[in-house]
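TA notes. Do not distribute before section.
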Amino acid sequence: MSTSLDSTDLKILKLLQQDAKMSHKEIGLQVHRTGQAVGQRINRLQELGCIQKYTIEIQHQHTQFVRLLMQNNQFQSFEKFISQQEKLTACYKTSGSACYMIITHFNEIEFKNFIELLSQWGHYSVDSVIKEVHHSP
């Protein structure tokens, strides 16, 4: 089995990123292949690990990027706290001007409460999204 991706494979991946529920027939019409051929390619892409899962994208009203500079060495305590927060999209341990980058989707009151709890671990800065310019699924 070939492990290289051709332009048709890349088009199929892009279409599935835009809408994972597209039928093989619909994809086939756009890439000039039969639905069966598309299904075979998708199976191959899954076997290669190019497609790892099918998921949905939730539209959030509020998105905040929080940078946290730790002022103590309670990394395990902080990471346990973070793992219990349901409205976080992600938390990354980073290098540079902060120790962690946290992506949240809180409303104003929830965010205020989250920040108050977060302040026990260090100093933070916040950037709030005002408009999405581009997003690749």
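Switch to the second chain here.
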Amino acid sequence: MKILNYIVVFLVVFACKEQQENVSKMKIDQGKKVEVQGHRGERGHSPENTIIGFKNAILKGVDVIELDVVISKDKKVVVSHEPYMSSLYVLTPQGDSISKAEEKQYNLYQMPYDSIKTFEVGLKGNIKFPEQKRIKAYKPLLSEVIDSIEAFVSAHKLTPVGYNIEIKSVPSQYEVYQPQPGVMVDLVMQVLNTKTIAGKWNIQSFDPAILNEMHEKYPDVTLAYLVSKGDFKENLKLLNFTPHIYSPNYKLIKTKTVVDTIKAKNMKLIPWTVNDSIAISEQIHFGVDGIITDYPERVLIYNNL
């Protein structure tokens, strides 16, 4: 019985100590404002990469909406994370599920946009995000997203938001699920050049070829380099320039020293995708410039302390 009592006391003391450390960390973080980017809108609670999801993220107070673009058969810039219809959350026009085995047969690069738009992307939900609301939605065009968001912000007198636009590109998929980097870059820029959102957007990509092409053709564009692994110095060797933003998997940012080293290269540091509250607090404590998250409210709470 005494042993049990000792265990209980130990657990209580440990819990109190952990709580004190968390409170202490929160105090350290007070006053530090980080840029909050809603990953694919606010994927934790709304269908990803949809106009309703972006609007919901804006209503929560994000600074930037993060979104992905691919290219359709008729050369339209479509907002979608995959260049195909994902079995995770897409339904056919008839309302049927798509199996994992057949999802890549629905190749967006081989489908005209009028056909793409008929697929349902919000009613199935997403098993990875059980709190996500089921809302009727479709894959919009980049031009439509910008027009809708700008009108929404203006109508509701909200603070203007930025756009972090990821060009989805994988070398092994050139001419299969996407055009060559040069063509892809030009198609995206054709859309952006028609919009009055100067200074409010940037391009990001995991593919160095996309970033190098963009920098060469459009040197004034703000660029972010997405990385999932590796040493940042080695990663940067794949670029012909130093990007404005370095955007790694947050698990690569383990100490403040790493943050300081990267920022010393005159790059902003915006990690992805940080959803856990403890990890969010830790990244803020390290001194990152922004956070990409599926749950904007979990980051905003620190900005409001």
